Amino acid sequence: MAVKYKNAKAVVTGTGTAQTILTPANATTAVIKSIIACEQSGNADTIALTITDTADTPVTFSLFKDKAISSEATAELLTAPLVLAESEILKAAATTASRIHLVVSYMEIS
Length: 110
Prior knowledge:
By secondary structure, the protein is mainly beta.
């Protein structure tokens, strides 16, 4: 069993279109330790995070829906680790494009 520590980074797109942030590789599990959102533009905004399970039709599950991020503020969105299987996709969307930067720190197990 191999363990690697990684980060997935993104400038979140807007207009409600969810963009893929992290998809574990085949035969891999990602244990997400931290999701940090930082508002960069000086304007408060909101972010939505979902997990899409592609092995189950697909079905989308909300983690955060319209989570407010204050102007020029940083927020840690997780209070406990989150497991992402190889058939699952972590996605994010913001109300306005390019205002929120997202860093996802995770442990990849294969």
